[in-house]
Amino acid sequence: MPGPEDYDLIIVGAGPSGLFCAINSMQNDKKIVIIERKNSPGHKLLISGFGRCNITHDGDTQDFLDHYGNHGRFLRPALLGFTNRDLISFFKDRGLGMVQERGGKIFPDTMQARDVLDILTLQCQELGVVIKCSQAVTSITRRGDGFFVGCVGGSYHSKLLAIATGGCSYPATGSSGDGYRFAGILGHSISEIGPALTPIFIKEYPFSELAGLSFSDMKISLYRHAKIKEYRGDILFTHDGLSGPGILDLSRYIRAEDVIKLSFVPEDRREALEEWLVERARRNGGRSLRSVLASLPNFVPAGVPLPPRLTKRLLEISGIASDLQTAQLTRKMRNRLIDNLTGLPLVVSDVCGFDLAMCTRGGVETAEVDPKTMQSRLVKGLYLVGDVLDVDGDTGGYNLQAAFSTGMLAARSIKSDFDRISG
Ligand SMILES: Cc1cc2nc3c(=O)[nH]c(=O)nc-3n(C[C@H](O)[C@H](O)[C@H](O)COP(=O)(O)OP(=O)(O)OC[C@H]3O[C@@H](n4cnc5c(N)ncnc54)[C@H](O)[C@@H]3O)c2cc1C
């Protein structure tokens, strides 16, 4: 039986983090191989941003750090070392310009994720990086100062190894969580993983018939006994729950049985709203409450009136007949209505699974990885990049930027490892 093929660097996973790490590690006559289980690289990259690839976001690195939950600090050296501007220049230098959408999202000017992937794979080809596709890595073992990688159809050996296997989201793209197993076998701790950037299901959901309605910049509060998070963002009613960037970004913190409170009217306007309703009852007592609520825009962010279908539903939820005359509104009813307008409680039955989650929360514990190099603090020569790390970003290009920045940081350190090993 032939022995393992020898390389200077093995990278497991041909997603953006693995490809970028390979491209930027290459020097002189080094032998680098990427092993990929799918029949071609970058399956997830191709579907990113609905196939348009929201590659990064506008803003300076300091702004970026707030978009990775509790892990912005870990990413700081990576994001400072290879910024959104550097990423844009990398592609521009290779003939792919970038455009910015309102809100700061950045896309290739062709709006094709395929063009981003083509540049990465062409670059690998030109530099002589070997990409072995349709080879799922099944085992990684450390013997002496080397790594032995076993696949169906081949085995490999190298002194340096990068795990770039992604997380668990969209497993059909190839990322089914193998990287956690490999890192675990090599001695790393894996923090609890779960779906992130995902819609949520709501118990006894009251807005099925209003699916498709969306609200911008809404305050969303998350309760588990007490309030644990507050967030502002756009939300979307779905058939069985909530979605939209505000919910997707918050989803990394959400668990079944949590309570989400939606503020259609800002909570700090509660008193003003009460005074307004009392005044309306005095002046327009004969008018139906529903028609009076149509002039609620004064209280609603951005002055956009609440859709009549929503006010009707909110009245029903509050146990108030929608044709009730405003003068008939009792104090109890008014309080219930104001409670629901300023903080409608909805109980989460679950977050959607990995099939719909764009990202994975949890992963390889960042405390065991050197943030300045992405090298394991436990195993010399082992690097961890991209989604396999316990790092997940908000929607808007933050995850791809993290994949590229961690890939680049690892590559810089790998290059000095090459010098050390050959010197
Ligand atoms: C639907 C969707 C849309 C998204 N849109 C955006 C967006 O617009 N902007 C943004 O910033 N982020 C987006 N993301 C997130 C982004 O795609 C990921 O953060 C990014 O792809 C992570 O890169 P990665 O290289 O770490 O992992 P991946 O892209 O997951 O790549 C990992 C690779 O490793 C391979 N692999 C895994 N296990 C093995 C094994 N045992 N053997 C061999 N190979 C293996 C996989 O097949 C895969 O090719 C989106 C995600 C999804 C699911």
Bound molecules: flavin-adenine dinucleotide
Total strands: the figure is 20
Helix content: 25-40%
Instruction: State the end-to-end CA separation.
Output: 32 Å
How are the strands of the largest sheet arranged? 13-16-15-14-17-18
Strand fraction: 15-25%
Question: Would you kindly provide a written description of the structure presented here, covering whatever features stand out?
Answer:
By secondary structure, the chain is of the alpha+beta class. The protein folds into two domains: 5-195 and 359-422, 3-Layer(bba) Sandwich (FAD/NAD(P)-binding domain), CATH 3.50.50.60; 199-352, no CATH class. It has 13 helices and 20 strands. It has helices spanning 16-25, 43-47, 61-65, 72-81, 84-93, 113-127, 178-185, 245-250, 270-283, 289-293, 308-317, 331-343, 398-422; strands at 5-7, 9-12, 32-35, 56-57, 98-100, 105-108, 130-132, 137-143, 146-151, 154-158, 161-163, 190-196, 200-202, 214-224, 226-237, 241-243, 259-263, 344-351, 359-364, 382-384. The strands form five sheets. Strands 13-16-15-14-17-18 form a six-stranded antiparallel barrel. Strand 8 (137-143) and strand 9 form a beta hairpin. Helix 4 (72-81) packs across helix 13 (398-422). The model has no long low-confidence stretch (mean pLDDT 94). Bound molecules: flavin-adenine dinucleotide. Residues 12-18, 35-38, 43-45, 47-49, 53-54, 136-137, 164-166, 169-170, 174-175, 178, 358-359, 386-387, 397-400, 403 line the site of flavin-adenine dinucleotide (FAD). Flavin-adenine dinucleotide (FAD) binds next to helix 1, helix 2 and helix 13.
